[in-house]
Design a protein that fits this description.
124 residues, alpha/beta, 2,3-Dihydroxybiphenyl 1,2-Dioxygenase, domain 1, 2 helices, 17% helix, globular
């Protein structure tokens, strides 16, 4: 069965060049082109996400990648300076502050990649 199988996740991207630039240059994540129309977005902990071309992509309305961080305030400030725009949730069960950081619960801030996929930085 799948007892010893590894797991990978996939995310669609309408434009791989924009995805590569965003993940590598803006976020500072290691990105490797692994084939025609495929990127491997690699985390320091050994996990990787496969990005593939999907021109007619409609983004999901939930978080698809979380990036755990030690200092969410500093991370949000650095990403904002790099051009990342954080989502604002002014009302409802989850409310964010002016920087886009939600608390109580784990400190978390959401943003979108160029394909509209929802990502977050999260600090426990």
């Amino acid at each position: 069965m799948l007892t010893s199988a590894s797991v990978t996740a996939n995310i669609p991207a309408a434009d791989l060049d924009r995805a590569r630039a965003f993940y590598a240059d803006t976020l500072g994540v290691r990105v490797i082109e692994i084939g025609d129309g495929l990127l491997s977005i690699q985390a320091q902990n050994g996990y990787a996400v496969l990005a593939y071309v999907k021109p007619e992509h409609v983004p999901a309305e939930h978080t698809i990648i979380n990036f755990p961080v030690d200092d969410i305030e500093a991370t949000v400030d650095r990403l904002t300076a790099a051009g990342v725009t954080f989502e604002q949730y002014p009302s409802g069960a989850i409310k964010t502050n002016e920087k886009g950081i939600a608390h109580p619960g784990p400190w978390q801030a959401w943003f979108r990649d160029p394909a509209g996929n929802i990502l977050s930085v999260i600090q426990d």
